[in-house]
Amino acid sequence: MQQAPETPVFDPESIDGAVADHVERALADYLATRHAGMAEMAPSFGSAVGSLAEFVLGGGKRLRPTFAWWAWRGTGGAGAGEQADAVLRAVSALELIQACALVHDDLMDASAMRRGKPTVHVSFAARHRERGWLGESERFGAAAAILLGDLALAWADDMFAGSGVDPRRQADGQVPWRAMRAEMLAGQYLDVLTQAKGDESAEAALSVARMKTAAYTVERPLHLGAALAGAPEPTIAALRSFGADVGLAFQLRDDLLGMFGDTDVTGKPAGDDLREGKRTLLMSVGLANADAAGRTADAALLRGALGDDDLTTATVERARELLTDLGAVAELDRRIDELTGTALATLAAADLDAPAGKVLSDLAVAATRRAH
C-alpha cells in the first residue's frame, strides 16, 4: 500500500504551480514501494514490473490528474488543505489507468512505437528473442503486455483506495471511478469492433472518440475531482458537460496529429492510424466527401491505405493531400473550434473557486489548439 511522503504538503497552493511534477513524485513513490515488494516476492516478475514503472514514468503530460486536481480545487478543495496530499495521490492513480489503456491499446493495434520507444509487447518480444527462450517471441510479448496492463489497472485501484482521502469523499469518488473504468474498456472494444466491421460512418467514429478518450481523459477526471470535494450535482453536471466537449475536441485534434503530426513530437510513425486501419472521423469525413463528389479513385486510395501494413511514405503523403483537399481537415478544425467554444461557455457559467476556472480554460485551449 502507498506510504505517505515523509514531508506532507498539505497546502493546496504549494501543489497548484506544478501539478504534473507532484503527480510524478506521487507515482514514483508508489511504484517504488510496489516494485520493491514484488521484487522481493518474485524477483523475475519484479524485473517485468520495473519495465512497467519505467513506462509509467517515461512520459506523458499528466492531463488526467491535472484536470481532476483543478476540479477539486475549484469546487471546495481550497478549504480542505489537510487533504491535499491524499487527493493528489488519489488523482495520480488516473495515470495507472492510462498506462493500462496504452499498453493494451498498443498490443491490440500492433503498434511498434510509443513515445519514441518500442511498445511494451515489442520490447518483451525482443527480450525473449535476445535471451533465446523457448516458444514464440511475439506470443510472449503479448502475454507480458496483457499482464502488465492488468497490473497497472489493479494498482490504480489500490493507489486510489489507499490514498488517504476522507472515506465519505472517497465513496463519492467511487461513482466516477467505476464508470470511467467501464467506459474506457467499452471504448477500446468499440474501436476494434469498428475496425473489424469496416464501419466508415461518422456516428461510429464519434462513439469511439467519446467512449475511448473523451470520457476517461477529461470528463470523468473532472467528475472525480469534484466528487472528492463534495461538489453539488449541478456543478458536477456542468464540469462533465465541459469535459465531454473538451475531451471529444482533444481526440479530434489527436486524430489530426496522427495523420499530420511530426513523429519527433508524437513519438509514433507518420500515418500510423492508417496502417492500423483506424476509422477516425477525419477518415470518415474524407471518404464521405470523396464519395459524394464522385471521386472514385481518391476514395479507393484512402480505403486501400486503411490497414495497409506496407504503407509507403508516398501514399501517406498522398492521403494527407486528399484529406485536406476533400475538406476533411477543415471540417475537423471547425468541429474542434465549436466544441471548445461550447465547453468554455459552460465552464464560465460553472462559478468555480479562483483560479480553477482560468486554469481549466487554459488547459482546454492547450489540449485542443491547432498544431499542424
From TrEMBL:
Stored PROSITE patterns: POLYPRENYL_SYNTHASE_1, POLYPRENYL_SYNTHASE_2
A GO molecular function held by the record: metal ion binding
Highest taxon above the source species: Bacteria
Cofactors demanded by this protein: Mg(2+)
Biological process annotations from GO: isoprenoid biosynthetic process
Alphabetical keyword list: Magnesium, Metal-binding, Transferase
PANTHER family: GERANYLGERANYL PYROPHOSPHATE SYNTHASE, SHORT CHAIN ISOPRENYL DIPHOSPHATE SYNTHASE
Family: Belongs to the FPP/GGPP synthase family.
Protein name per Swiss-Prot or TrEMBL: Geranylgeranyl diphosphate synthase, type I
Native organism: Actinokineospora alba
Lineage: Bacteria, Bacillati, Actinomycetota, Actinomycetes, Pseudonocardiales
